[in-house]
Sequence to fold (324 residues):
Amino acid sequence: MNTLPQTLPPFALEPRFVARVWGTHDLRDWYPDLAIGEAIGEAWLSGDECPAHSGPLAGQPLRHIFAEHAPLMMGDVSGSADSPLLIKILFAQEKLSVQVHPDDAMAQRKGFPRGKTECWYALKAAPDAQVACGLKPGASLAAIEASLHDHTLENWLDVLPVSTGDMIFVDAGTVHAIWPGSVLLETQQNCDLTYRLYDYGRPRPLHIQESLEALRLHTQAGKIPPVIEHDRTLLLDSKYFRIEQHTLHGSLTHTQLGSAGDSPALSYLFVGAHPVSVQTADQQTIPWPANSLLAVPARCQDFQLTSVEPAKLIRIVARQPAAH
Ligand SMILES: [Zn+2]
Fold:
């Protein structure tokens, strides 16, 4: 009975909700059954502690699933065998702190497996929604440091309007801040290092020295225009993740979702609240609750997605950075 499985079925993950000072008390449109006490800022969709919703792995936290099944989850494993991506939904009702994340090299100097490059896909945006992403031309380290003392850092931030469907890339080292007005699907390297540069006087710790060390005056950050491919729209292709949008109307198989020539890779699927059914080759139905992720291991049993109504499917594919 101890033979190791050759494949894993896809499985939904149960979100974990995180209270934040800038969060909301109203998630009726997203999670109608959720009882809310403190304001919720983040729904962690692929957090290390998020359990599998059903199937043979039901109840096991993602951290444990990676520890036990890394080769099945990720294909070829080089380097650390923990979960490479953290995907969240952010519900900002106020401005978040102005912050910066370290790159891989700086994070590894501090004893962490990886840095944090992230991106935001706008699931919803009010007409006045904005984010701050990067520094204006002419910024220098001295000017940024001085602006912290006289509370004028915002003047140096490049501010972008956000519309539903926008993809914004935020590479490590980019000074950034999420502002209210949008609900963002955030994909990031699974790293818990955030350096706060400025927090609007809120009583949370700042990390000025680390921020100044991590920040870069020029980065690749900004809005990424979509690229229409023959059967999908490419939203972002970065070193750490590739994000695509598919239109699901009728049925799509796991094989059809893959790109020709790709080696097997871990991916996550998101469809919001649309009713999409997931069936394995042996006709098992896999439950997939609204606004949760379907985890698709690199070594995955074939399955089919079906939707009667047209549904917008976001597919997030993990990339293994080359081993050095
Ligand atoms: Zn961030």
In short: Residues 99, 101, 118, 176 surround zinc ion (CB under 6 Å).
